[in-house]
DNA sequence: CGGAAAAGTGGTAGTCACTAACACTAGTGA
DNA sequence: TCACTAGTGTTAGTGACTACCACTTTTCCG
């Protein structure tokens, strides 16, 4: 059992579900090429100093095409097809856990999952995101949206009404705390990050002694 | 004692500290005029659909001047001179409180303070901010920055090392939870909002029963 | 009081993210 | 093989924001 292997994302097109025609294959390759070009250029020059035109040129497409693949300049960096294809948070968890254990379970899964992928687990990418306020904001945004979904699932799991006050407070507190702790980490050893998150959860569960 | 009266912001220029020359007076009036124009137009047409040129025209200045007063289009709405001039969070609190009581104290002060002001307490403004993702993001940003300052002050107040792990977790949790609760409120009765925040703090202090 | 310095303003031109419309090409499915 | 469709490049445009320059007004000081 455990976490299933992430699908390949490198453009070979052996993964997906239904149609693996020439067209589909080409699209995946282009998408990956744009991502790679963006990361390369942004690491060199910084995100703000890199223009969409440059990225497009490097990936050998037009700027228009860039925007057909990614709705914004930030998106090319923060987006992550792997996570996108994942079910919403907490879905598929074994029943009967406490809210805290449920989060622990989800966090562990998340890290395991992304660690196996070239893009999602890419250290340079993570570092890049932390280096630019626009990227930080965009990621925050994405995070928030996921939490919105998570709230409903969590409420259901716990047998509480949707949009339950306690559930909202819980998730807000957990994610807020995690954000504070994960964000300023200089060197993002993945294992260290997981440990920090677990420490946060322990602290919140037992009550913060302040 | 208690909270001091907010300075006037309406352009009469009887408030500030040192120089109340013609120039300074004019600047305040212009600043207020731009704000008013922006709010009026954005409430009518929505924030996204309102251009800086329109706002500038309505306030009878050039677009260039607009950007001399406000660094971005969002800034004209989310910014708040009152809060800007306030000391950082937690400064001036009576000693010896717990972290939770300290936050309660700060929140109460904050609400009292802003309630007395035309701009900071403006309901339309609050509603407008909630209506547009760009404004929400910008406000979040401002909030985050304030919390950064607050962390240091809080650590010092509690006699802990700066950037203490527990302090960071505490503030992250508190603000994250508050965000979740305050944000989706349809009708922002100020007193209701305060009550919600207090409920959040109680919940976090006692431990969330989940 | 008068005149130089400083501060504020408008206009022009330019960059960059992003969108809409159109014509073109290449994979797809019958 | 032949229409159909999806993907692409080009062009033109909008809107936020910046840099620069010339002009006016306030302030400061001898």
Summarize the SSE layout with pairings:
The structure is a homodimer of 210-residue chains.
Chain A: H1 22-45, H2 52-58, H3 63-69, H4 75-78, H5 81-85, H6 99-115, H7 123-131, H8 133-157, H9 165-182, H10 190-206
Helix pairs in contact in A: 1-2, 6-10, 7-8, 8-9, 9-10
Chain A binds a DNA duplex (30 and 30 nucleotides) through helix 1 and helix 3.
Give me some keywords for this one.
210 residues; 10 helices; 0% strand; disordered N terminus; homodimer; elongated; mainly alpha; DNA-binding
Order of helices and strands of chain A: HHHHHHHHHH
Major sheet details of chain A: none
Form type of chain A: elongated
Rounded radius of gyration of chain A (Å): 19 Å
Count every helix of chain A, treating DSSP H or I runs of 4 or more residues as helices.
10
What structural category characterises the helix and strand content of chain A? mainly alpha
N-C termini distance of chain A: 41 Å
Helix content of chain A: 55-70%
Q: How much beta of chain A, percentage-wise?
A: under 5%
Oligomer: homodimer
Mean pLDDT, all residues of chain A: 86
Q: Largest interface by residue count?
A: A-B, 35 and 35 residues
- Per DSSP E runs of 2 or more residues, the count of β-strands of chain A stands at 0
Stretches of chain A where pLDDT is under 50 for at least 5 consecutive residues are 1-17
